[in-house]
Amino acid sequence: MSHFTGDKAPGQLLAYLAEADAGKIAEAMVAFANADGGTVVVGVGEQGKPVGRVYAEDVEAALRQAEGLCRPAIPIGWEVMESAGAIVIAIKVPRSVELHSLMDGRVLIRQGAGNKPLTGDAIRQLAATKSSGDFETEPVAGATRADLDDPIIAEYQAKREERGRPFVGAVEDMLGEIGALRSDGQPTAAGILLFGKNPQAFFPQSGLTFVKFLGTDPRGEDNLPGYGRREEITGPLARIIERTWQVVYDEMHVGAVVKGLEREDKTEYPRFAVREALVNAVCHRDYRMRGRRVEIRMFTDRMEVISPGGLPGFITVDNIVEEHFSRNPRVVAGLFQWGYIEELGLGIDRMIEEMVQIGHPPPRFKAQLHSFTVSLSNVRERRAVPSWQRSMNERQAKAIQYVRENGSITNREYQQLCPDVSPETLRLDLSDLVSQGILLRIGAKKGTYYILK
């Protein structure tokens, strides 16, 4: 019998249910199937502790009922596990290529640690994405196991072990588990993209084009190409990220400051912001779209990272900070295990924060039908003395001073600064500062905080 530790908090890929409630199980199944897949553990409280009153036959009966509440049917697997002397049941829900709903018509998708209901356009957009959504596991015509690069696979395994997620078993079993190899030994699209010796032989669109222009416009004098450097970067995705980062770093202006006795390099753009834009483009582009590669265009005043395929699923420019959806979950999981993604779902927040903190404008996001562009500006914002300084109330002045001293402020911290004022009044204070462009709101719900804009 397998052992369940309960050391992970509920999240995008994990849900806990204390009881075998068929309705709640069905909701979790639909939400996971519509997103990245995941595991529902029955018999565990919110803190990951077993409740000790769950029986396998009860869960099996509830699961049969739950399966009847989902449309279309969702193929799942489940196993009995032991945790601190108690029994828990783990229900594994795969990511589905179909759009699923409950019998009452509700469409749910997993968002963080909750199941979010979708309506209207969001459902239609998700349905459009689902209609061709399992590209990663399709076999690659003409590819064989020999087309996968064993040194690259070994590197992935070593990085995975460093992150505390070693795979015990044969290499082929590991490749099968992560969706890189089919049961008949044929590589999948995800396998070729992650581990291929020459992925571009099968997917020419999977490379990256870097261009550095000499000014703020793609054209030079006399309408001639105005670029100073152009690189076509190829290889498996991990190598594309590494090689592109080196090219971009080489072309970024690097200054230096001295803190104490140590010299610290200061790059033209924050390192994290550039790497996050690069990794996101490689992870989330639509690899079904042929004829166009990820592009990085570096101008004298900005850098543009262009990802073919538009935004995935129900993601929009308006909800990109709060929402999470993976068009290529196996590629994302692979690069996460490799260490190229630091923490799933938090990169956009930090990208915005780091740009603003060094005096640059926040990143600009532009979503079009077949492309998504992130623009980073290197022009420091220069603002006149704002009129709000003459009319700001005393509470808001305290909040601004607190942010200057501590880097950010939360609603809770603001309430501690002003304990005699109602939470709603303080919320309106912060909203007012955001609407005037003084503070920038980062995160959502309980994770919300504010920084100077």
Q: Which key terms come to mind for this protein?
A:
six-stranded mixed beta sheet, globular, alpha+beta, five-stranded mixed beta sheet, 453 residues, 21% strand
Summarize the model shown.
With 453 residues, the chain is α+β, with helices and mostly antiparallel strands. The model has no long low-confidence stretch (mean pLDDT 86). The protein is built from 14 helices and 19 strands.
Give structural notes.
The chain has 453 residues and is an alpha+beta fold. It has helices spanning 22-34, 56-68, 120-130, 150-162, 171-177, 189-195, 237-251, 271-284, 329-338, 347-357, 388-391, 394-406, 411-417, 423-435; strands at 2-3, 14-17, 38-42, 70-71, 77-83, 86-93, 101-102, 107-111, 114-118, 208-213, 227-233, 254-259, 262-267, 294-298, 302-308, 364-368, 371-377, 439-442, 449-452. The termini are far apart. The strands form six sheets. The protein has a six-stranded mixed sheet with strand order 11-10-14-15-17-16, covered by helices on one side. Strands 1-5-6-3-2 form a five-stranded mixed sheet, covered by helices on one side. Strands 4-7 form a two-stranded antiparallel ribbon. Helices cover 33% and strands 21% of the residues. Helix 1 crosses helix 2 and helix 8 packs antiparallel against helix 10. It is built from 14 helices and 19 strands. The protein is globular.
Number of strands: 19
- Based on CA inertia axes, which overall geometry fits? globular
SS-based class: alpha+beta
From the alpha carbons, calculate the radius of gyration and give it in angstroms: 24 Å
Roughly what percent helix? 25-40%
| Helix count, DSSP H or I runs of 4 or more residues | 14
Strand fraction equals: 15-25%
How confident overall, as mean pLDDT? Answer: 86
- The low-confidence parts are none
Summarize the main sheet.
6 strands, mixed
